Structures are given as structure tokens and as C-alpha cells.
Amino acid sequence: MTKLLILPGSARRDSVNRKLAGLAAQLAAEAGAEVDLIDPADYELPIFNGDLEDAEGLPDAAKRLKAKFLAANAVVFVSPEYNSSVTPLMKNFIDWVSRQETDDEPSLAAYRGKVAGLLSASPGALGGLRGLVHLRSILGNIGVLVVPKQFALSGAYGKFDEGGKLTDESAVKSVKGVVEEVISVAGKLG
């Protein structure tokens, strides 16, 4: 069974990306994956700082999040776009999780061999697509196999109902396609 971690890159409670992450979690569970949907509010971290790490080690929240990555064999990153790139929150999560806790721990242990999928939602016409380009590059450079299929939901503010449900059936199918590809590839590699 695929152990799938879903990581939203927005801390806003009413974020369309958090709603999209919730849909991805539901679809993954329906596809038979064991799902762990992260609430970013549970992992408040300082901005990565090597001096802080040297003085105090990894913060507790970073250790807990890293443990979630180590336990999973696949991750769906659901990230909004800030100024044509990945959000500071997402990048900070990636950076802290990448750190070694011991001298004998392999470099990038939480990322090597992981399969990932990319989703984004934005009120804009591109749906956060420009940020996914940067996220794909970052993840590829740290040993993550990012599946080719991805989805960026444009005009997102008008596509969720009051209960947070995505009302665009074509978009639901696209999210399902990404989730199923991640699960399939992770299953073949696992």
C-alpha cells in the first residue's frame, strides 16, 4: 500500500490550496492509499538558518515533519504561487526536512527515492503553474522523482462551494489523474 503524504504550501485556513489538498487526500484514500494530510499550522518553523541549526539542532516541528516524509513513499505537494515561484512556507518546509540529524544519516534521506505529484490553485489565469515549474526543479535536484502529470487550477476562488468542495468536475478528474499517477508509480517502485 502506498503511504502518501499530502503537503499544502499555504497556512491560510481558507486557502484554495488547502481545499485542493483535502480533495487530493480524499481521492487518494478512495484509490487505496494510506493518506497523511499535513496541516501546516501544526509545523510552525523559523525561517531556515544554518546558525540556528548549529546552535540548537533541528526544531521539534522539523523533526516531526521529517519523520512524516521518512514514513511515506510518495508526496503530493499542493503549492500556491507567490510572485511566480514557490511559497516561502513550502520552501522552508523543504529546506528544514532536507537537513541531516546525525553524521551517519545519508544526505537528503527524507527525499531520496520518493515519488511526488504537484498541484496548485490560484485565482489567476495560470492557476499557479509558474510556481510548479520551480517546485519541480527544486524536488528533482534533491532526488525526488516528480511524475510528469500535474495540475494547476485557475480561477480557483469561484470553483469551490461554501463547504469547500470543488465544483468543477473536469478539475476533479485532473486532480484524480495526478493522485493516481503518483500512487501507480510509487507502487511500481516500492
Automatic annotation (TrEMBL):
EC numbers for this chain = 1.-.-.-
**What is one Pfam family matched by this protein?**
FMN_red
Among its keywords, does the record have Oxidoreductase?
Answer: yes
> Enzyme class, one word?
oxidoreductase
Q: Which residue ranges does the record assign to the NADPH-dependent FMN reductase-like domain?
A: 2-156
Q: Which UniProt keywords are present, listed alphabetically? A: Oxidoreductase
Which molecular function GO terms apply here?
A: oxidoreductase activity
InterPro entries noted in UniProt: Flavoprotein-like_sf, FMN_Rdtase-like_dom, NAD(P)H-dep_reductase
Q: What is this protein called?
A: NAD(P)H-dependent oxidoreductase
Native species: Luteolibacter soli
